[in-house]
Design goal:
globular, mainly alpha, 79% helix
Length: 482
């Protein structure tokens, strides 16, 4: 950790005292992370039921039940991280968790599709507040020697939720109907809020100013516009004025936010974090791996359904072994890989993920056996996800001062979500493109995933140089020459 970190910490109030509360706080953080990422995927399997519930609503409008959550989640992560470090991580954690619970209740009771979409948008905004606040609490309350293991457990919770979402959603819809996938969050959310209020210690006031409101709004609009444009490009057409307007407007709004952050005393974006070479390269790795990972999470179940005629529930269970290995990979990297070798975990995990996609790319025409083809490649991919997500979080947070934990987490997660939007957009474009057979479309998707994962592997290699630069800068500061 840089030599300036302790001074910064003392300037913002006493640091939270690690001790017996570290374990329960980690448990709470894993629980809210599981809920947030579960709700990003669990709705997909409810579409047939939603179509029956709202027969007069066009499918394009109904897809916003998924998109509204994803767009607000991505758009507000960076701003929420900055807000958590200003208001206090405990305050934002409790407020966002309660808001997530109430918006889940609203979604379960929505009488119209329009109100359901609105509730999902607000639910995504609440989830964006939970994630950086939760991870910031874990980093602040966990002793440095145990942070990597804690990040491994946190990453395992998020990876498991994304992978088992289709299975859980299928069971809930089969048991009741689409409202159950939202209603189940209510008792869980209330229990988490009650436990958090009793467990998480109060924090001293940070004394920091609230982030620039104009820059914060511009940042949210920029990211939201870019994610919406990328998500809808394949459906609306990439030359559609709405798509071009969203992408151009998003780029201009994001640029405005970054320019204001350069000179504002309380910036919306902590641009200084990107001056750390390891943090900056970890963000690049998160962007590239996010594109590969989210493309795969979308493609895996769809491939089983469309190519092998699996039911939605069967497809959900079909990707579960990979999810289990993702948990194992996250825990092993968190507990066993030292900080100086996190770059190697990113590189190796990305290569394993690329191998998963290349195996399917080579076998796509001859795929006839789940056990011989999809299962081994899925296990490789799951292991890669667990390794990379944990190693990126560990490496990126290693040099952050305590009062900027949540802001750094928000930026890293934003990079991953933006990459995910790119990956999903590319997947949709490849699968809906004209002029090729279904096998060629799948081959194109798997090749794209492999190439993007290889890019993440290169970013992992570059993190080794970033770590050396960080260490050299720390030595200069300790010697009084930097």
């Amino acid at each position: 950790m840089p030599a300036s970190a302790p001074a910064s910490a003392s300037a913002s109030g006493p640091r939270p005292r690690p001790g017996p509360g570290a374990g329960p706080i980690l448990g709470l953080a894993c629980a809210v992370t599981f809920l947030a990422f579960l709700d990003a995927t669990v709705v997909n399997v409810a579409f047939p039921d939603l179509r029956r519930a709202f027969p007069d609503v066009p499918l394009a409008r109904l897809t916003w039940v998924v998109s509204a959550y994803a767009v607000l989640f991505a758009a507000l992560l960076a701003a929420a991280g900055r807000l958590a470090d200003t208001l206090g991580r405990r305050v934002l954690f409790l407020g966002a968790s309660l808001a997530f619970t109430l918006t889940s209740l609203a979604a379960s009771a929505a009488p119209t599709a329009e109100l359901l979409v609105l509730a999902r948008a607000l639910q995504g905004a609440a989830a964006a507040g939970m994630i950086p606040a939760a991870l910031g609490l874990v980093l602040a309350h966990t002793p440095p020697a145990r942070r990597a293991a804690a990040l491994g457990a946190w990453s395992a919770a998020g990876g498991l939720a994304a992978a088992v979402g289709p299975s859980i959603g299928g069971l809930l819809v089969e048991w009741w109907d689409w409202r159950a996938i939202f209603l189940v969050n209510v008792p869980l959310g209330l229990a988490l809020c009650w436990a958090a209020a009793r467990t998480i210690p109060r924090e001293a006031p940070t004394g920091r100013r609230l982030p620039d409101p104009v820059g914060t709004v511009a940042l949210a609009l920029g990211i939201g516009g870019a994610v919406t444009g990328l998500s809808q490009g394949a459906e609306w057409g990439w030359s559609d004025p709405k798509v071009l307007g969203l992408l151009l407007g998003g780029a201009l709004s994001g640029t405005l936010a970054l320019r204001r952050s350069r000179r504002h005393p309380a910036p919306a974006v902590d641009r200084d974090l990107w001056r750390d070479p390891l943090f900056a390269r970890a963000n690049i790795g998160a962007l590239l791996f996010g594109a590969a990972m989210y493309a795969w999470l979308l493609t895996g179940p769809s491939y089983l359904i469309e190519r092998w005629n699996y039911s939605v529930l069967q497809a959900g269970f079909g990707v579960t072994p990979g999810a289990i290995l993702a948990m194992a990979g996250a825990l092993v990297v968190g507990r066993r890989v030292p900080a100086r070798l996190q770059w190697a975990a990113v590189t190796v995990g990305s290569l394993l993920f690329a191998a998963n996609a290349l195996l399917l790319w080579g076998w796509v025409e001859d795929s006839a056996s789940y056990a011989q083809i999809f299962l081994p490649s899925g296990l490789l991919g799951g292991l890669g996800i667990g390794m990379v997500v944990t190693a990126l979080s560990t490496a990126a947070s290693a040099g952050l001062p305590p009062q900027r934990f949540a802001a750094g987490t928000g930026l890293l997660m934003t990079a991953r979500q933006l990459g995910g939007a790119l990956g999903v957009a590319a997947t949709a474009a490849l699968l809906t493109g004209a002029g090729a057979g279904a096998g060629d479309h799948w081959r194109g998707v798997f090749l794209m995933v492999a190439l993007t994962a290889l890019g993440a592997a290169l970013a992992g290699c570059s993190m080794r140089l970033g770590g050396r630069a960080r260490a050299a800068r720390a030595r200069r500061r300790s010697d009084g020459t930097g």
